[in-house]
From TrEMBL:
Keyword S-adenosyl-L-methionine: no
Entry keywords, A to Z: Oxidoreductase
Lineage of the species this protein comes from: Bacteria, Pseudomonadati, Pseudomonadota, Gammaproteobacteria, Lysobacterales
A Pfam family of this chain: adh_short
Superkingdom assignment: Bacteria
Name of the protein described by the UniProt record: 3-oxoacyl-ACP reductase
InterPro entries assigned to the protein according to its UniProt record, in alphabetical order: NAD(P)-bd_dom_sf (IPR036291), Sc_DH/Rdtase_CS (IPR020904), SDR_fam (IPR002347)
Family in the record: Belongs to the short-chain dehydrogenases/reductases (SDR) family.
Amino acid sequence: MRSVEGKIVLITGAAMGMGRLYAERAVAERAAAVVLWDRDAAALQATCTELSADGARVLAHVVDVSSAQEVADMAVRVTAEAGTPDIVINNAGVVRGKPFSEHDPITDTEFVIGVNVLGPMHVTRAFLPAMIAAGNDARVLNVASASGLVSVPRMTVYTASKWALIGWSDSLRLELKREGHGHVRVTTLIPSYIKTGMFAGARAPLLTPLLEPAHVVDKAWAAMKAGKPRLMMPWTVTLSAVLRGLLPLPLWDWLAGSVFKVYSSMDAFTGRKPG
């Protein structure tokens, strides 16, 4: 897939940040329609208005992706208004950075798992049968995290959600290929910390710079179009995953904690400020 021109692109968490950047690239490549999903109605409408200013067809819907019913209902509307998406970008995500003992079971644990794990599953399931049946070159991009490969203290539930997302995303990729639906390709994005308000206060581990959102989106966009199974950024994410698999756990804990400073990277986390 050299371009998304003429294709229908759906992006979750699209009102701001990286979601908006994906939408900008879809508009720039003249997608037939760009569908924006987010929970923030005001920011969503502002983004939709700006992106459609030059005549692009941009549709905006307020959706809670953790709700299977909301997703199913809105999927019907999207199909009626724009058609079956050729590209689904599961970008929506939330984080909680504090000790697990301080997590509220509902507002923290269920919330994070609902958005980060169930959300991509609900959204993909809502459109996948039609994407398979259409027979067109199609893509699913799932935005995970390096914490889904390497454990991080003070981010237990977020880490768990990204481990689950990576496992599901890669299993889906293999399943589609084995069942003869190779025209629908799945890419899993696994970046380290990105310079967004979502991870304000987090400190980058040794040799792992904080990533620029536009750079990550550019690389992910290219990987998605190429149908690349996995994109890990930066190179130290791959190194960490390899070392964690090869080294005895006590040695890896020492290396990650005392040398790379992975285990203390969330100690000063504040997260996005309200407003």
